[in-house]
């Protein structure tokens, strides 16, 4: 039987639970799947990046390991680009409506008016992200200096407090489902027991036509920048928020290790993922 591995981190040896249905669904279509901590040296016909959420502290090691894996999903070429959130500047330049984003270094002081967010360019699970009150520039400067690395500065989109973020999920370049994430940067936000990510408040969603268009445009722009075809991306998650004018804006495009919201999706979503895995294996002639 063809074998795939779900790459994870040592703190979550079997993932965070969202992917639990995938093992049996893949077995139904002739694919044996198991979990493996990234960097362990285990091999398979395809290694699928999943909950590798400690990579932010070991980025060089992680990208090197990704490059060493013979068959990786998503492709190793995606990793250095998408693990650095300055890719948002690239997408904005390509015409995608993105939350206004500046990449700054410690010592920066030209802060925006109103509420804004400061977060490291390399980060996962909202770790290191700070929501700054309007005018509290000293807090922003102190936080940026404490990060000691390049960071993003973005105006806070207040609609997130009531509407949250809408995440649109694609498998093999095709839309699958969507879910909503409640506002994360709130006073009551808490990290899960692993300390790797803020606990999310999730529910299913039906995206609007405008959200679908922005998500499709973001995915098209990304694959053009990366020199790939959409079908070469086993999965993608496009996170959108509502801007001050009511139009959707791209907050993040997750191509490396996103939660895919299976527990908030319809029952057929794991089957669509399994079909995308089969297609990826077939493209690599693993059968």
TrEMBL record:
PROSITE patterns noted in UniProt: ATP_GRASP
InterPro entries per the record? Answer: ATP-grasp, DcsG_Biosynth_Enzyme
Q: Does the keyword Magnesium apply?
A: no
Alphabetically list the UniProt keywords: ATP-binding, Nucleotide-binding
GO MF terms, alphabetically ordered: ATP binding; metal ion binding
Domain ATP-grasp, by residue range, is 88-282
Highest taxon above the source species: Bacteria
Q: Does the keyword ATP-binding apply?
A: yes
PANTHER family, A to Z: GLUTATHIONE SYNTHETASE, PTHR39217
Q: What is this protein's name?
A: ATP-grasp domain-containing protein
């Amino acid at each position: 039987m063809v074998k795939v591995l779900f790459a994870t981190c040592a703190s979550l040896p079997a993932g965070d639970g969202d992917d639990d249905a995938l093992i049996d669904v893949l077995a139904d279509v002739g694919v044996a799947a198991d979990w493996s901590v990234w960097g362990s040296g285990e091999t398979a016909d395809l290694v699928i990046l999943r909950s590798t959420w400690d990579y932010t502290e070991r980025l060089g090691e992680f990208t090197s390991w990704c490059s060493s894996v013979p068959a990786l999903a998503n492709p190793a070429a995606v990793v250095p680009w998408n693990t650095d959130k300055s890719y948002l500047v690239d997408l904005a330049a390509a015409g995608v409506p993105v939350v206004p984003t500046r990449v700054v270094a410690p010592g920066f002081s030209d802060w925006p008016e109103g509420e804004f967010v400061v977060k490291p360019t390399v980060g996962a699970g909202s770790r290191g992200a700070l929501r700054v009150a309007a005018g509290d520039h000293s807090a922003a400067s102190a936080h940026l200096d404490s990060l000691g690395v390049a960071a993003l500065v973005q105006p806070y989109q207040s609609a997130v407090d009531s509407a949250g973020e809408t995440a649109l999920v694609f498998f093999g370049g095709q839309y699958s489902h969507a879910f909503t994430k409640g506002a994360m940067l709130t006073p009551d936000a808490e990290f899960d027991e692993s300390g790797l990510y803020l606990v999310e408040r999730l529910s299913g969603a039906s995206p609007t036509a405008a959200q679908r268009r922005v998500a499709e445009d973001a995915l098209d722009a990304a694959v053009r920048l990366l020199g790939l075809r959409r079908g070469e991306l086993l999965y993608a998650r496009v996170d959108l928020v509502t801007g001050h004018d009511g139009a959707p804006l791209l907050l993040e495009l997750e191509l490396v290790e996103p939660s895919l919201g299976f527990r908030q999706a319809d029952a057929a979503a794991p089957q669509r993922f399994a079909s995308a895995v089969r297609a990826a294996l077939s493209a690599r002639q693993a059968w």
